[in-house]
Amino acid sequence: MLHQDWMRMALLQAQLAFEQGEAPIGAVIVHNDKVIAEAHNEKEQRNDPTAHAEILAIQRAAETLGSWRLSEATLYVTLEPCPMCAGAIVQARLKRLVYGTMDLKGGATGSVLNVLDYTLWNHRVEILAGVLEEECTDILKRFFKKLR
């Protein structure tokens, strides 16, 4: 499958979040061309500020593989990760991050800052940005317009 196909799966997760009144951010983790974890934001539902789609997906992927080292896995997420999630990506040793749209207010993998490019980390993560950017941006715009 192509990056766009995996991102469409992340967008389905974002849609679930949207329908549940959560910020519509979805994540999918792929290992050996197979989805091993899916998640969407659950901050409101869990009343937990750490229940970001990326964090939940990383936890589920580690459980699926029986290891916290996700060094051959790719994380697909609809919005650029925040500093907390970027740190978790490094700690999980993910091979690659693919995201849809930049977060110009709080993104930590290239827009506002780049946690993944810190030279002293012992792990490097490949980054691919802008996959299905228009669709990923659109769902966020629709959600926040609905809130107003």
Structural topology:
Elements: H1 3-19, E1 26-31, E2 34-40, H2 43-46, H3 53-65, E3 73-79, H4 83-91, E4 96-101, E5 126-129, H5 133-147
Parallel strand pairs: 3-4, 4-5
Antiparallel strand pairs: 1-2, 1-3
Would you give an account of this structure?
The chain is an alpha/beta fold. It is built from five helices and five strands. Strand 3, helix 4 (83-91) and strand 4 form a beta-alpha-beta unit. Helix 1 packs parallel to helix 5 (133-147). The radius of gyration is 14 Å and the shape is globular. The model has no long low-confidence stretch (mean pLDDT 96).
What descriptive keywords fit this protein?
single chain; 148 residues; alpha/beta; five-stranded mixed β-sheet; globular
What is the structure about, briefly put?
The chain is α/β, with parallel strands linked by helices and 148 residues long. Helix content is 39%, strand content 20%. The N and C termini lie far apart (37 Å).
Strand order of the largest sheet: 2-1-3-4-5
Oligomer: single chain
**Structure annotation, total helices:** 5
Strand tally is 5
Shape: globular
- Based on CA atoms alone, the radius of gyration comes out at 14 Å
Order of helices and strands: HEEHHEHEEH
**Which residues form runs of ≥5 with pLDDT under 50?**
none
Q: Mean pLDDT across all residues, rounded?
A: 96
Going by helix content, strand content and strand pairing, the class is: alpha/beta
Q: What is the strand content?
A: 15-25%
Largest sheet: 5 strands, mixed
**Roughly what percent helix?**
25-40%
Distance between the termini: 37 Å
